[in-house]
Amino acid sequence: MSPAPRPPRASRSGRSENWRIALDALRANKLRSVLTVLGNVVAVMSVIAVVAIIDGLNTYVSEKILEEGLRVIYIDKYGLIMTEDEFHDAEKRRDLTVLDAEALRSQMRTARDVVAQVDTRDQRARHGRDELRNVTVLGTTEGYEAVGKYEIEEGRHLEPDDVIHRRPVCVIGSELAQQLFPNVDPVGQMVRVSGWQLRVVGTLVARGNVLGQSQDNIVLTPIGTFQKIYGPRRSLTILVRADSERDFERAQDEARVLLRARRHVPIGAPDDFGIETSETYKKLYQNITGNIFAGTIALVAISLLVGGIVIMNIMLVAVTERTREIGIRKSLGARRADILGQFLSEAVVLSAFGGVLGVGAGITIAILLRVFTPLPASIQPWSVFVSLLVASSVGLFFGVYPATRAAALDPIEALRQE
After folding, report:
1. Separation between Cα atoms, residue 411 and residue 339, nearest integer Å
2. Which member of 20, 72, 181, 396 has the lowest number of beta carbons within 10 Å of its beta carbon?
3. Surface-to-core class of residue 68, CB atoms within 10 Å of its CB (0-12 exposed, 13-18 middle, 19+ buried)
């Protein structure tokens, strides 16, 4: 006796029929479908938007912040402060002085430039009747242009003689030049800063904004002149530029050893100063963005769980509403696999629809950020692909139970359903 023939597998036309029925069900209940997939929309939107923001932050930080500090070591009184206790401990340390900077300049073998700087913010600059507020005044020694992005547009930089003789001169940012000297050449003019008259010897090329703060609203003056205006009791920041990338770590060690010896720090005691590099801030930034992304994943997981449960409940409602339809299909020869495929297809289409809406919302957020903020947020194709894949998988997972329940219905009982 020959074995009974196996039932034929679902044909391509049968599978396409399932997708057509799923799309028809979606169109027939538009509002319900939209409300059903809100969880998926939030989840996918969060992934797209956060990935775009983090990618934009990576570009922004690399171009605007970290790139400026390549091969530059920052030494100051405080260091990287993370807690209030650390701040109080750092306040007890001795100030860094110009003599400390000169000692490093004369003794370091791996340093190309050593610059001492001190600044104060929220000052006023005035010329005639024109006044500009929120000005940053930076006192510096020579060589500042080598450790920062200070390019001269007109005139000259501060020179060693300006620093040595504490001359009342300054270099101003492009914003000051435009606001205080709109119709004349600023070079050679006098600007009044905190009651002191300074002669402008140069103007800087525009540097733009960083994190919403203008870098062109600045006055650079010799550090001795700064101390005449604001007093000498301010701890300095010492900037050390290494000879090469190969000497970068050696320069940090050399500066630490020389300063500890000069300041008589006992062996085994912690430094009484802080040393940071762009790598220090890069690691801090990565920790922050890592925590943000982890928080987003938690939000996405919760949203997907809620969205999946809602989809499952709606599919159970759909099974109840279409019990008679299922009985008719089964009486006409539809198999369990056909019914199972039909309702799984509907669940996947419903979930993927939420994913598409979420992708659109995430892309819109990224575009708005790019247009209205300096953040170069950009859409990553992999985030779109992964989001749609995960959203569809959620529909498949949570649609199994309703689809199995539909496939298990007895056709005779189903046909009795009104």
Report:
1. 12
2. 20
3. middle
- Of 2-6, 255-259, 289-293, the range with the lowest mean pLDDT is 2-6
Q: How far apart are CA 63 and CA 375, in angstroms?
A: 11
pLDDT in tens, 81-97: 778 888 888 888 888 98
Phi, psi of 73 (to 5 degrees): -105, 130
Distances in whole angstroms, Cα of residue 401 to Cα of each of 37, 314, 398: 18, 12, 7
Listed as own residue / partner, the contacts of 333-340 with beta carbons closer than 8 Å and 24 or more positions apart are: 335/7, 336/407, 336/408, 337/10, 337/407, 338/10, 338/14, 338/18, 339/403, 339/406, 339/407, 339/409, 340/403, 340/404, 340/406, 340/407
What does the pLDDT average to over 292-296? 75
Q: Show the beta-strand stretches assigned E in 252-319.
A: 274-276
pLDDT digits (tens, 9 = 90+) for 310-332: 878 877 777 777 777 777 777 77
Radius of gyration, CA atoms only, the chain: 34
Both structure tokens of 195: 């009651």
Dist. CA 322–CA 28, nearest whole Å: 13
Distance CA 198, CA 220 (A): 10
Q: Please list the residues that pair with 193 across neighbouring strands.
A: 125, 196
- Cα torsion at 56, 62, 68, 69 (round to 10°)? 130
Helices 12-28 and 336-372 pack at an angle, to 10 degrees, of 60
Across the chain, mean pLDDT equals 81
Return the exposure string of 326-344: e unless at least 16 CB atoms fall within 10 Å of the residue's CB, then b: bbebbeeebeeebbbbbbb
CA 26 to chain centre: 37
Domain ranges of the chain: 12-63+283-416, 94-272
At how many degrees (to 10) do helices 323-331 and 336-372 cross?
Answer: 130
Q: Environment class of residue 208 by beta-carbon count within 10 Å: exposed (0-12), middle (13-18) or buried (19+)?
A: exposed
Which amino acid is present at 281? Y
DSSP 144-165: HHHHTT--EEEE----HHHHHT
Q: Say what the pLDDT of residue 18 is.
A: 66
